[in-house]
């Protein structure tokens, strides 16, 4: 520990000496050089040069100048804290830290003291107010640790993360008395308040803890408080059982997956990458970016991988319009490129179209101008969940065409045998989604929320987020007896997770299998899905085999929520044309209008949709005549029109102890009313046969008159190990977990 | 007549002589040179050169080569006619004429005789079949004149329009015997069949007649049958009471508006511009493009003007995805540029992104490569309807930002005091639509049809097109006693039209007023709308004053159909949360689920929406407490899920002899969940006052605390003529029909 501290001091002094050699006249400050958090004095030299030239970096700079000048022309407002989220004082204090940060950046880039003075003036107003502030009047003690500027300390930590950087950038310009006042009345008390003042948050291995440790640790670097840095890294007791490093070890899986899902992963990323850069600049010997086999880089990359056509897969509580253009991921991609030099990240940076005014941002801007971008490769991956990566997984399967961000025609399956993901998790074990030609087709509702729209429940999560969006029936997975997984109980859900039994990718496509026996007492759910690339087929097919076994007869519902218009079904539907009623009373069913139902005979039951992307999609289900098809629309029991009125088809089996739902989801055709042609509006699939032989699943598909045999070996035999079997009097040899064979004999 | 013929022969011979001087060894053909319809031999010389160089024209050529080569590699199929629209023989014969046309173009461009031989072979197969063909077995004698290749003669005329051009381009390559066979067995009999064989269509002043006259006239030019040309131009009796020139005189208004609306205008355009080019090339003295003050050019330009963000305003039976990229308008814009040299058309051509392989197409390609495009100017226009331009009008009002095709942030109001527009017209006198930030906000359902989707009623107009889409309640205009305008009777509707009372545009915006007393017996409907540009307001506002007076008490419904999510209303809504029923029994009402209703107190009733474009919209209605607000969703009595489930709010007054609906539609704010900000989610409008003084309408609006007075003078005083009036103790001077004043005294 002392060695580390010695090194830190050593490096700090060395850098300061270098800085002074470069011509500065700072008063001696043994605690720290300035700036040296995310932006370093070395960065600043290059950045000052870049803003005088043309290019993306200079443009971003000019944009910031005009934005900040506009805001600086208004009087400084540092209101007494009184409002909750969305209210005036809350929003004002948020804007203030952004403005201080931006003005401080401009001070570094332009050396115009007006920027520094503006930041100093605002800091002094905060310093005048802060010491006497009580806990925030809108605090909610049972839910969140309170702040003083804000109702929750999370916002206070965010305030300090930005403000300490602003301070770091203008510190050298401050009069000694002002500096002392800002340090003593504002920065020190706030850092202490956020650490010793709230051990339960500071020592929590949770995203809120990350903001607190980042704020306190960065303040430690700037004020030369090595002890604060140690506490930030290892917890208040410095044992390493909590703190930033523990958060890095626990909050991400070894592959860099954050178990609340990509929407929150993106949000969680920012304090990690901000503090990590500060650590790297102040204590490079820690090799923080190498920590845990480069987990932070993996976390950035995983966030990108968990997107389709620029938007994150909207699992759990997610606002669906969030994607790779979010500012957190702009910072992440900027860092990833500057650390790795991997030109694939420039592809993403190009799509983001935003340049960050940091040293790393300058590298990105220059590389983009040199046309160095190469295709970023999207992959098929099972992202292990949990700190050990073994608590289930979040699985993405993509076809070859979907491997780079420009390829909006590709197909992607998102399959979720993942852990619950804490309070923002949905009760949707083994759910899936399907994407094709740039669009979400088999859909996830995401969160029921209009972010920041006051008229919609204050912009918070709507009541329907709990009553509908989190419920199992709102997802594309199995509901037993109209109740949600784990009976909708979070504590129970957090204790259990599915088991990933198989995941493999080869030239025939990708396959995944997972099961869970804890979602319902006495019921085992096992789902095998494959994204099949069949030679000669224009689009990959999704094969879905959902096997349910129960200790007693149950009602089994398996929904497919879709975005599009119902075109047809090959069985009779009885529509409720003059009166609609909800499908059920609780657990999300109360929000579904039952629009029609049908009970197809034995054989292949087909439902065809048309999406606005111009493609048709047919869900073909192999039925024995025991499956009812219910056609629903969201919107019942929604007095405030809070829900989107989307459609679903639900397959229902009643009183079953065992049932296997076997289906194929098939994209086909092209609807082009502008050019007046419609191609292949009908499904090409005319038959499915299905059988199991121990761990071997065999599925025969007849497509356009040609038979294909799909073999899936759940024993996970390695590629190259041959398994021989016979099917319909023909011999096959299977090598690996997935194969597609062209059958030379036809259906009998 | 004889002089014209003499000139025609003369020109024809002269051109032929020139052609032979250029080195050809044709047998003497006194009837015509080849080619000389849309593509001339002079065009061909330049085109042959262009395809050897790089550029858009050469790219379009290469694309066509690969497409045609692919199709030519398959055996020629000329099936016996047996199927109706969408069936095999129907689609095959359609593909055949396109293929013959394209192969013939390639023959001209490459002089590769394989293309000519392919066309000749196919023509000979048609020639072998045609003489013995009976009328088509799927003919519907009561509806359409039948063809022989197709169920309706319309398709046969289209076949000949393309095929005569293909023949014209390969004729020089034919063996005399083959040529004689094609002329005698195919071209002559078909031209006679389409003219003398079906006088009722040939002499009809209707789009179907245009295709017939174009086919016959063009065949006349090629075969040297001057008589056929005369009949095509002046009708079978050559009196001029029918024929192509009469069609030009009657089917368009003086401003070039086609009264079925832009969707059908685009479709109707093609035979006009095709035949006109043939006329111009063969009989330039006719000055066909100058005919009726250049009505054909005006028709092309009007079609462009009737679009927003690339899509046509979807009034009447319209497929909503049709727009400026349709092939008909590609030909139209190509012609318009080549005739006028107006570089604004290149702006549109650029958006279309398609190059036509004609002489005119080459000019466009070359001009685009020279970067000659300038902004095409979209305007605010009242397009007079009917042959005299006095049967009402279709009105477009745009704000300044919406004046060019790149400006997707602009606002546009479409207002429809137009005539019925024949069989494809909707019963929607005085309806309106609103567009903003690239999106349709106040919406028109368009046609209920899935074009060419066999599973949806054979791809034809759905039954719901009549039962819903055409009905008045499906539009944004007034419904009396739950019945449609003219009681939904087409013959009656065709006899009447609204009167355009006022249309004006100045720096304060645009204003329009129209009325009709024939939509309902004993009821007068009068609507005044303005798109107001108020200094300091981010967006224009739409003012809507709908005055209804009746000879007896009636129920008055005024719907606003919208695309978006309901955010809030400032009055209590009683929602039907557990059971939905249709709003009515007939005239479209049977398709509307009643989701909620409310009856606001006296004052300003507000309903706020959020569109996917990220903007909020508030409808503020000045009520006396006598208006009910009904919230509906389309989808009742729709057993086949044929309708889109869109929303509306309907203002209802019961038992009224007179009522004025006064409202403002206000775009505001910005919802950006990706960047996590929401601005101005609330309407800025806090009060409306309204009064009339004879022809003067006075409306006071309070926006963000500032009062504005809107004055509309329906007397249509010219700009510059001053009218003095007082309002709230202040004097005003009105010059022109519309003014917006900043009020210095506030609301009392």
UniProtKB/TrEMBL annotation, chains A, B:
Where does this polypeptide localize? Periplasm
Mind listing the UniProt keywords for this protein, alphabetically? Answer: Lyase, Periplasm, Signal
Q: Would you indicate the residue range of the signal peptide? A: 1-32
Q: Which residues form the Alginate lyase domain?
A: 72-305
The GO cellular component terms are: periplasmic space
- Which SUPFAM superfamilies is this protein grouped with? Chondroitin AC/alginate lyase
- Has keyword NADP? no
- Heparinase II/III-like C-terminal domain sequence ranges: 386-657
- Transcription regulation as a keyword? no
One Gene Ontology term of the molecular function aspect: lyase activity
The protein's name in its UniProt record = Alginate lyase
Organism, scientific name: Planctobacterium marinum
